[in-house]
Amino acid sequence: MSAPFGRSTRCLSARSPVGLLSQLRRNHPVRCPLGERRLSQARPGGQRGPLEGLTVLDLTRVLAGPFATMILGDLGAQVIKVERPGAGDDTRTWGPPFVGAESAYFLSVNRNKKSISVDLKHPRGVGVIQEVPVSRGHTLMSGYGQTGPRAQSPGYDSIASAVSGMMHITGSEDGEPVRPGVAMTDLATGLYAHGAVMAALLQRHKTGRGVHIDCNLLSSQVSCLTHIAANYLNGGQEARRWGTAHESIVPYQGFSTKDGHLVVAAATDQQFVRVCNVLKLNELTNKPEYKSNKLRVQNRRELLHTLSQRFLQEKTADWLREFEGSGVPVGPINNIQEVFSDPQVKHNGLIQEMEHPTAGQITVPGPAVRFSSFAHDKATPPPLIGQHTVQVLRHTLSYSDDVINALLESKAVTQNEVS
Amino acid sequence: MSVGREAAVASAARRPAWTTRGPHSVGLDESSGGALCHHDPGGPGSPGYQGRATRTWGPPFVGAESAYFLSVNRNKKSISVDLKHPRGVGVIQELAAVCDVLVENFLPGKLPRLGLGYEQLCAVNPGLVYCSISGYGQTGPRAQSPGYDSIASAVSGMMHITGSEDGEPVRPGVAMTDLATGLYAHGAVMAALLQRHKTGRGVHIDCNLLSSQVSCLTHIAANYLNGGQEARRWGTAHESIVPYQGFSTKDGHLVVAAATDQQFVRVCNVLKLNELTNKPEYKSNKLRVQNRRELLHTLSQRFLQEKTADWLREFEGSGVPVGPINNIQEVFSDPQVKHNGLIQEMEHPTAGQITVPGPAVRFSSFAHDKATPPPLIGQHTVQVLRHTLSYSDDVINALLESKAVTQNEVS
């Protein structure tokens, strides 16, 4: 879920890359310390993230914006997170659960950032922000867009998910609309934004100029409707809810087992035959009404009823074992504990542990994308509020100690006792 | 917003990027202005057949084109190459030598066996950005499992957390795991291109459905990893804010996001249920969460009494965020959706006028006014061989005759 963005919330991309040439190491395997996820043989890349040397000024809060800037930080950019004194980012208080004084929510989307605490209502506070060289352009994230009839509506994932059609298409076949269990509209917007920022940086290499970027929840989710949208726009076909099932492929859905759920994706006739083999329901393969996918779709109710009854008779783990080697794609519907016990999840480095200055050891979901040229081994923990105010003023803006002290005294900025 | 006239051309656009499959990430790259070639493989049984299969995924069709294929394949050229034919592989190797970016979603190991793996191609083109998209990753115990959004959504926990409170798990109504992966990939490709400016070298990128969706679990994951708190389904509701969910109305549904005490009071005002604001058990959000069943029952009954449009009107100016649960027709009738350019019309050479959801992101430096329609299969084979690889007509004809490549009758 998200809180309102409003017009004043920005993620600014700034600064030209510092012109360092990375030291290229040859023929050295890139190893991910958190797992054994090694990608190709070594390619010289100097272990530097692709965005090393770039600075991002981050004025976003809650989910979509912080998610985007976190990914930029994962890729090596320096992210300066500007927070209002006192509470800072709303999500710092969103719990339980807390780890020490830090909410798990805040920890999950704020690694690799520095926090400066600046009062934007104070003229000297605004002055500090203006001095960071961001004339290269900026990315504005909002609920609905920078202009238009809804531009003034604050952006909430829940509402954008409703307005954009996402809720209408999610839920059980005969049930009410629901929303995706995590704020995918917010996250898709963050993902669009992180890419857009880099596209703008690529362009800047050629033109020397920055651009303004408009990302919003509504557009992100509507674009993501893809074929659902095209079905309507071209065929006038309204969408509906399908639970875990697929409108045009049978059997392609979840089934309850004795102790959980399993998803089967049998998209071809051969795969359907194998499903029947594994289920020991071979008689189904002889029924003319199930011979082709088209027929199975037409006669879905009866077929799915038969399959459902059979799946209920055994446990998920037993079914998974019986399906091994069958060529039929299957998988369990994992709860969160099961997700993080999965060996592939561990292998992919998706359990990222870090030391936090006050909370101690924290664990967050790791970066999704791996590059052969560097390892994600330089991650820094999510910052305390205002942890890096003085550091940034000193090193990024080259302020003298006198100027820094004056700003601190005026309360235009604040510094955490931990730095 | 005002949009500048000059085109934004990402540096990848100087030379075309080539791809097999991976339609979602390719769809995004093109929106930044890169010229991309989409490789349509040779047919059933050949590698990447799935990619071609979406051309047949319908109804609905527009002419002979499936709406599914049209929705994610604009701004691409299509060349038709048989990867089982050695000369076909040769064409791809030569293209990779002159391209910026290669995006693929074969099972790990398949392309290297054909001589088209990262190791082999970057030996010829050290600057190549090679983005692999798979179900579970390039290595590891599940690397050989084919990637299906449905299964990845299940394995990654997404289904477990989606559905009504007392109902079964469901999946998001569109393949958000697939799409999130495509979005991660498009960003990763551009990060790699940025790095190439400094180092001159390309990179191999590993994107996969499992990692994308697990990373997107964000706070749901952190709640478990740090607090041992298992997640559950909440329908449209929120675990820790009340009222913050959908309500059925007389003729549809409405979502209300009342996150503060003042907003709760305004909800009661609009609903003419002012007595609720005096009840001690609803005074704070924490209390409303504790007493949610009763409160939500009362609110639900009231919302049922009027139509969605009437409620929306009554909530205007109240400061409470609300919105209708739109079906797809309602989405594309929404004035903001139209304003944002999300209804993109194009002329297709055989299907005539087609309409697809437009690009999500707008830049001040260019307009999305040069979009080309999704290609017919092999529509640009000769064009690409001639202009990108500078093949002579003799060489092109020989390739066509050998069936290593095919050309659509429309070009």
How would you characterize this protein structure?
2 copies of one chain form a homodimer. Chain A has 419 residues and is of the alpha+beta class. Chain A has 2 domains: 34-224 and 370-414, Rossmann fold; 252-256 and 261-332, formyl-coa transferase, domain 3, CATH 3.30.1540.10. The first copy, chain A, is 32% helix and 15% strand. Chain A has 15 helices and 15 strands. The first copy, chain A, has helices at residues 64-74, 104-108, 123-131, 157-163, 184-207, 217-223, 226-235, 269-278, 293-298, 300-311, 316-323, 336-339, 343-347, 389-395, 401-410; strands at 10-14, 55-58, 78-83, 98-99, 102-103, 113-118, 138-142, 212-216, 252-256, 261-265, 330-332, 351-356, 360-365, 370-371, 413-414. The first copy, chain A, has a 7-stranded mixed beta sheet with strand order 8-7-1-2-3-6-15, with helices on both faces. In chain A, strand 2, helix 1 (64-74) and strand 3 (78-83) form a beta-alpha-beta unit. In chain A, helix 5 (184-207) packs across helix 6. The model of chain A is unreliable at 1-36 and 41-45 (pLDDT under 50). Strand 8 of chain A pairs antiparallel with strand 14 (362-363) of chain B.
